[in-house]
Amino acid sequence: MNIHEYQAKELLAKFGVSIPKGIAAMTVAEAVEAAKQLPGPLYVVKSQIHAGGRGKGKFKELGPDAKGGVRLAKSLEEVESHAKEMLGNTLVTIQTGEAGKQVNRLYVTDGVDIGSEYYLSMVVDRATGRIALIVSTEGGMDIEEVAHSTPEKITTIVIDPAQGFMPHHGRAVAFALKLKGDLNKQAQVMAKQLYDAFVALDCAMLEINPLAETGDGQLQVLDTKMSFDSNALYRHPEVMALRDETEEDPAEIEASKYDLAYIKLDGNIGCMVNGAGLAMATMDIIKLNGEFPANFLDVGGGATKEKVTAAFKIILKDPAVKGILVNIFGGIMKCDIIADGIVAAAKEVNLSVPLVVRLEGTNVEKGKEILEGSGLPIVSAADLGDAAQKIVAEVRKIA
Ligand code: ADP
Ligand code: MG
């Protein structure tokens, strides 16, 4: 799960991290009110969307010459005019895709006199099972570009979570950023604070870009992105409360209500599978047969009738879906119960596209009998390869 910049900053501030003062706003009036609470005379009005690259982004409605999604303002009037231009409009950045994202929230913050900009991030590194702390002197720009053209300017420091953050990790961060004197000390302190926040909040990723050195010699976090391990969210109701559903795909929100793992993809064959590994294999074999999956969908081990029905509805809402492939392995679940669920769900949703079902496992014969006796135009498949060929043939018939 991702959160907004202002929310991440509020969380980090609790760990002592140095952050310029700022206030979130949902309306133009609130934005002006927020600016009045700040010392001024320089303010920054920042679009809050779950995507980076806002500064260089463009508003769809405003034309190519308008300013981006992060703007400096030198007066309350300027704060007001920026807020008016941003709220309700669609910001397109390198991370949003062409469709862009509607700006519904703003963050009005102190304008900082920037000396240098640095980069710092932390991610869970699955390969080493440790936390990778990544720093670079090249902050404020696209880090992917830095990694591509000047990889020597990026330093990775690996921290073993069992050992925790040691003073030498802090020194390594300050050294990599080439900081001297008091700034060097500040970097060591901040790196520890950020690590503590990362671990305590069960983050999956924390990125500070830029980490700024101000004109008066302070290290401050000017921008931050934070995402969380969804499996650990139950431990953090305060983080869960920060979820902004307007930033998420409606079908994925619906799926999460039924505990279905659903991810929309670009193809035309809807997939309903139990188990993530089987779902991946199903997607692969569809591709092997020359078509593309419309989604990844794992109904999980306990695929009840309710879950199967919800899954059908979600798949069918996608207008790109021209056929559905159900691939279920009845291990703990029995095939006859699953078949009952499929038949009931297919009747309830008024199935409008071809449906191929491959069942295997406990009570498979009984399951197949139920499908055949249902009177529904369900195509039964013998195995995974057969299922893929049949659904591909079905959708090509329509095309
Ligand atoms: P994004 O990464 O989405 O473009 P940032 O918050 O990093 O958004 O803002 C883009 C740029 O705007 C930063 O690299 C920085 O130069 C400038 N900036 C951001 N916040 C401030 C601030 N509080 N004061 C001065 N400049 C800022
Ligand atoms: Mg940034």
Would you write up a description of this structure?
The structure is a single chain. The chain is an alpha+beta fold and about 400 residues long. It folds into three domains: about 90 residues, Dna Ligase, domain 1; about 130 residues, D-amino Acid Aminotransferase, Chain A, domain 1 (2-Layer Sandwich), CATH 3.30.470; about 150 residues, Succinyl-CoA synthetase domains (Rossmann fold, 3-Layer(aba) Sandwich). Helix content is about 35%, strand content about 25%. It has 13 helices and 19 strands. The longest helix is centred in the middle third of the chain and has 20 residues. It is elongated, with a radius of gyration of 26 Å. It starts with a helix and ends with a helix. The mean pLDDT is about 95. The site of magnesium ion (MG) has 3 residues, from loops.
List keywords for this structure.
single chain, 399 residues, alpha+beta, Dna Ligase, domain 1, D-amino Acid Aminotransferase, Chain A, domain 1, Rossmann fold, 3 domains, 6-stranded antiparallel beta sheet, 4-stranded antiparallel beta sheet, 13 helices, 19 strands, elongated, binds adenosine-5'-diphosphate, binds magnesium ion
Radius of gyration, in angstroms, nearest whole number: 26 Å
CATH topology of the largest domain: Rossmann fold
What is the top-level CATH class of the largest domain? Alpha Beta
Which band does the percent of strand residues land in?
25-35%
The CATH architecture name of the largest domain reads 3-Layer(aba) Sandwich
Principal-axis shape equals elongated
Mean pLDDT score, rounded? 93
Ligand inventory reads: adenosine-5'-diphosphate, magnesium ion
- What gap, in angstroms, lies between the N and C termini? 37 Å
- Poorly predicted runs: none
Helix count? 13
Q: How much helix is in the residues?
A: 25-40%
CATH homologous superfamily of the largest domain - what is it? Succinyl-CoA synthetase domains
Organism: Novosphingobium arvoryzae
Family: Belongs to the succinate/malate CoA ligase beta subunit family.
Binding site for substrate: 274, 331-333
Binding site for ATP: 46, 53-55, 112, 117
